[in-house]
Amino acid sequence: MIRYLPTTGSILWSLKCQRNFDSIEDLKRFIADQGNRFYRFIGEHDISFHSHDVEINHLNDHGPVVGWHNYCSVTLNGIITGYCGE
Question: What is the pTM for the complete model shown?
Answer without folding.
Answer: 0.84
